Amino acid sequence: MRFAFAVAKGKIAADKVPTFDPSVVPADDPNKGPLDISWVHPDTHGNPDLKASRKVAAQMVTAYRIVFGPAFPTRHSARRAIDMTITWTGALKIADASGKVVTISTTPRTSADNKQLHAVGATYGVIKLVVDHPHWSDNGH
Q: Does 69 reside within a domain?
């Protein structure tokens, strides 16, 4: 994701993206292995088309709704963060970490913006990063 963003924003040319280094992935990661992505898209003659490469990277950024330049390593790669979206209708009844049931009847009814839900998450040590709608982590970053 970080190279899709970098290519899309013109921060690196597609033909300058480094090859994947598996040593940066935690050893116990079940997805560890080669990740061969060709960022350079060829033109009709097989030559590198860096403009097309940037366009396709931008499509990927849009499709994945990437709004901030991803870093690596991250809280996600350390298994300390998750991106999730929660929505509900009516009142939401949810237990906090102490077992107390909290009724959330305030709006908006989305995990991105509901301060009551953020407070419940915090009791579990899951902190909402408000500026990044789906992002929750153990430290709010």
A: no
104 lies in some domain: yes
Model-level pTM greater than 0.70? no
- Tell me the C-alpha distance between 139 and 49, whole Å: 41
- Name which of 29, 113, 108, 8 is nearest 76 in CA terms: 29
Report how far residue 66's alpha carbon sits from residue 9's, in angstroms, rounded to the nearest whole number: 12
Q: Given this model, what pLDDT does residue 35 score?
A: 65
pLDDT tens digits, 91-115: 999 999 999 999 999 999 999 999 9
Cα–Cα distance for residue pair 26/73, rounded to 1 Å: 10
What average pLDDT does the structure give for the chain? 90
Domain range spanning residue 112? 81-137
Question: What are the phi and psi torsion angles at 92 (to 5°)?
Answer: -105, 125
Q: Are residues 39 and 86 in the same domain?
A: no
